[in-house]
Structure formats: C-alpha cells, structure tokens
Amino acid sequence: MTCKYAVLLINTGSPANPDSVSVRSFLEEFLSDTAIVDLPHWIWQPILKNIILPLRSSRSANKYKEIWLENGSPLLLGTKKLAGAIEQELQKSLSTEICVKIAMRYGNPSIEKQINELCTTGVHQVIALPLFPQTSVTTTGTIFKEIERLNNTIPIKKASGYGTHPAYIQALAEHLKLYWQSHVRAERLIFSFHGIPHKLTALGDTYEQECKQSIGLLVEHLQLPQNSYRIGFQSRFGPGRWLEPATIELIKQAAQDEVKALQIFAPGFAIDCLETLHEIDVDMRADFQRWGGKQFEYIPCMNNSAGHSKALGNLINSLIKPNSEN
Q: What predicted TM-score, i.e. pTM, was given to this entire model?
C-alpha cells in the first residue's frame, strides 16, 4: 500500500536486549546527547565511558530483565501497538491512505532510518509526533533537532505540546475513571512526571509549567479535592538541582502522614517503560512499604488503549484533514 500521508510516532527508545552490552550501547548514545547532558565533550566523554557506563550498564540491564516481555521491550512493543491502533482510528475518518510508523530517538528503529524509508515510498507528507505531551529541550527539542539534521526530501510537519489538548485531557480522565471502577480511588494520588534539571526552566524550558497546566485541567475535569493529589518529578540523574518536589519525597511524606492507600500515575509517559514499570512499581513501592506504608498501587499508562489512540488520532486528524483532499 502506498500512503499519501505518514505519521511518525517518536519515543525515547530502548536497548535491543536486556543485557549489559546492549544497555551500554543504548546508554552511550542517550547520554552523549548534549540535550541530556550539557557538558563539553572533552569533559563528559571520559567520565561517561570510564565511570558512568561501567557502573550503570549491568545494574540497568538487571532492571530491564525484570520488566522485559517474552517478545521484547515493553516500550518498543507498546509503541508499535499504539501506532497500529492510531492507524486504524485514522483510516476510519480520512478519505486518503495513511500509514503510522514508529521511530526512536535513541536505538532502533532510528528516526533517520524511518524517514529515509518513507522518502522512497512516495509519501507526500510526514507528521512527526513525539509521544511527549509536555515539551522540553530534552525530549521534543532533541527529536526535532535530529529531524532537522537529516536531508529530508519530503515535507515534515512537526506536532508537539498536546498536554492541554481537550482530547488528551479527556482520555486521561476516562483512563483514571475506568481504573477507579475496579480499584477504589486511593486516599492520596501522586502524578509523577520525568524530571529535568532545574536550570533548564531558568533558561526558558516550559516543561514544568506544561506539566502543571495538564494536571490543572485534569483535576478540574475529575473534580478532585485539592488535598487529595500531589505533583512530583522522578528519574533524577547526576548532581545539581532538578525539578521539585521529587516523587520519592512525596512517597516518603505519604508514609509519614500514615496514608493508608497511595496511587501513582505518570501522565507524561505515553507507554509503560523502565521508569514506570521498575522505578515506580518496583523501587518506589518497596520504599513506601519500607517506610511503613501499606497499600501502593501503580496506575498503568494509557498505552494502546482505545481512549489514547482516539485522542492522538483526533490530534493528527486535525493536522492532516485540511490538506487530505489535495
């Protein structure tokens, strides 16, 4: 099938396998991106190759092994399933052929490989959609920079920053309501976002503001009492101040407050991955219980749910439809 339009769903990426060699290769590419670690090459690369990678590769590989699925990476497989669901959603509403592909900023399939392949298929236009509802130089910024680096022969429309889009907020709300139908809403809910260095906010990165805007709209939609939820940031890497409060500190505070039932939801992650399946559901759960907490529930990401694919299909549709008859 020749598609007139193509959508490229772009996620962070994953190691090819849950072993130290694959993880080292993935981490080296990821941590060599100056959008992730902004240090001079001559300073950072010796530290990365001689200290960070030897220390982290085996440790991270063990964590990946705990969450790895029989047929591969949860992030990669989940992104593929979401792409398929979105493609079906779009084909219902558009009168033109459309393909939805996936790419990873780090690892495979790479952005370069996927765009090069699309250039040979006769596609008229590509919609590049990073699966990050809230924008940052560390996510959408580095993805678009990579796209700009490539010598593209087809027009690429960049879509980003859908964290306040009504369809996205509606999907989040319905996702939580559905979860609470089979799991009673806990005494306290923590919305956990991936953190970034605080200095980026001072330099104009709007990520923190966008996270809070998303949650503001979501809790208004759900009519949650103000004292029933908190917003935190996780996955700190390296020294220096990061966005606060840290999710782990909010979990510790919940245990100290003798909160009997705690739920964690990570709305900034489109697909479940190491940061949700292990950092939250394994490590943070263990910490909460070690501090005396009792009931800990991790609410899964929207993944390839009908609501998620419909919301992103709605967003993509609005970008394509005005031109779809041309």
A: 0.95
